[in-house]
């Protein structure tokens, strides 16, 4: 079995690789969903969209932090709630606080995240050079797709719960 050489940092990646496209799509969805750009290069989004995002992002960060702080403040300012309201307060405080903590952690490790994406894409390109097995690649893509669907379903459940709370 041939050895896989360590890729150099300035290696050009083949953009026709399906795994390259998969990681690019994941990073693009994360960027358009409100996250940061973890891709190796600039996203192929319109420049006006990127400028608008970069201008609005700090304002949205402050709004989110104030929103989470208001969740915590509700424990002192809203003591006379029904059982359902009290449960909703506890659930939303925990979920939003933990979710934002994860987001801040990802931002803190952004250079490492980009390095991880680069390593994964480079490894996939090298692996395709050594062993071009379409079945294994298809299985990897299906598994990644399943995880993305599960993440989407969990996210949509949280959004649906928010809409339900709003309509009460």
Description:
By secondary structure, this protein is mainly α. It has a domain at 23-132. The chain has five helices and no strands. It is elongated and about 65 Å long.
Put the structure in a nutshell.
By secondary structure, this protein is mostly helical.
What's the SSE blueprint?
Blueprint: H1 18-32, H2 47-77, H3 83-108, H4 110-130, H5 134-167
Number of helices: 5
Percent of residues in beta strands: under 5%
Count of individual beta strands: 0
Oligomeric state of shown chains: single chain
The coarse overall form would be elongated
How far is it from the N-terminal to the C-terminal residue, by CA?
63 Å
Extract low-pLDDT stretches: 1-11
Structural class: mainly alpha
Radius of gyration: 21 Å
Summarize the main sheet. none
Order of helices and strands: HHHHH
> What is the helix content?
over 70%
Task: Calculate the mean pLDDT score and round it.
Answer: 77
Give descriptors for this structure.
disordered N terminus; single chain; 168 residues
């Amino acid at each position: 079995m041939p050895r896989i050489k360590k890729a150099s940092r300035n290696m050009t990646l083949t953009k026709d690789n399906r795994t390259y496209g998969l990681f690019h799509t994941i990073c693009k969805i994360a960027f358009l969903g409100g996250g940061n750009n973890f891709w190796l290069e600039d996203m192929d989004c319109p420049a006006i969209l990127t400028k608008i995002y970069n201008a609005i992002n700090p304002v949205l960060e402050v709004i989110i932090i104030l929103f989470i702080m208001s969740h915590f403040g509700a424990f002192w300012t809203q003591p006379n709630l029904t059982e359902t309201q009290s449960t909703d307060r506890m659930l939303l405080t925990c979920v939003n606080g933990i979710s934002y903590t994860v987001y801040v952690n990802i931002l803190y490790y952004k250079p490492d995240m980009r390095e991880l994406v680069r390593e994964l894409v480079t490894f996939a390109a090298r692996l395709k050079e050594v062993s071009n097995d379409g079945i294994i690649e298809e299985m990897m893509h299906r598994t990644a797709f399943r995880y993305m669907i599960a993440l989407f379903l969990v996210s949509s459940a949280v959004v649906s719960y928010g809409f339900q709370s709003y309509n009460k």
